[in-house]
Amino acid sequence: MRIDVVTIFPDYLAPLELSLIGRARRAGLLDVVVHDLREATTDRHRTVDDTPYGGGAGMVMKPEPWGRALDAVLDGGPADVGRPRLLVPSPGGRVLDQAMARELATEPWLVFACGRYEGIDERVLLDAAQRFEVTPVSLGDYVLNGGEVAVLAITEAVARLLPGVVGNAESLVEESHEDGLLEYPVYTKPASWRGLDVPEVLLSGDHAAIARWRHQQRLERTAARRPDLLAPTAADDPAGLAVVP
Ligand code: SAM
Fold first, then answer.
1. Which in 26, 43, 147, 199 has the greatest CB count within 10 A?
2. Quick one: which of 105, 69, 62, 104 has its CA closest to 87?
3. Ligand 1 atom closest to Cα of 120?
4. Hey, which of 60, 90, 125 would you mutate to test ligand 1's pocket, going by the most ligand atoms within 8 Å of its Cβ?
5. Where are the alpha helices (DSSP H) in the chain?
6. Span from the CA of 89 to the centroid of ligand 1 (angstroms)
7. 119-163: per-residue pLDDT in tens?
8. Element (H, E) at 93
9. What is the pLDDT of residues 92-128, one digit of tens each?
């Protein structure tokens, strides 16, 4: 997979050189290229923002540097894939979940446009839609200072799903959100620590009993922490439109 990131803070993406993602890059499983938006400016001050039309607080990212930067990404990208997916971190975007991470993991080429200030001039997205599949994407219902943290989170969620990135592919199967439930609690040695014992069943060697216990734990944990993930109640879905698996 190829990932291009356009940002005014290239150093913010340095963590993508670490850990499993860094190793995947060195192994050639993932190609990440970070671009400085200011390289696409033409004035002495390398200006990327201006005051908003219509007034209001804050600054807006200017369209011209973005247009040039995205053109350059397209020109320098892999030639043999179709329209790249342009992900635009935005608090008003589609909220990232595991299903979306899985969907993005099938793409050959992702491009991220990191907004700052009050965001990017809307015409950049309209213009880009002629050459990219544009998807505004949100980390959740809160406001960050910029899109870079979203790029780190999305890249990690997506890249760990690529073949070979996580050593033991089985560890991906039982994780939280893979089938709508949270993961069961996990334990390691020692069996007793600060007066707290590992549940007896996990020491039993009875694989069927362990599987039953874990499934029960997943249900209980999901009900306690994320009841919204379980089948909707009549109150949530008065018209009965939701399909219960
Ligand atoms: N004025 C914008 C609004 O209310 O929608 C928020 C701008 S925010 C201060 C600056 C940038 O941070 C955004 O353009 C976006 O790139 C990023 N950002 C903020 N919150 C985000 C979120 N929840 N998910 C993804 N990106 C976010």
1. 147
2. 104
3. 14
4. 90
5. 19-26, 63-76, 98-104, 122-128, 148-159, 170-173, 207-225
6. 7
7. 999 999 999 999 999 999 999 999 999 999 999 999 999 999 999
8. strand 85-95
9. 999 999 999 999 999 999 999 999 999 999 999 999 9
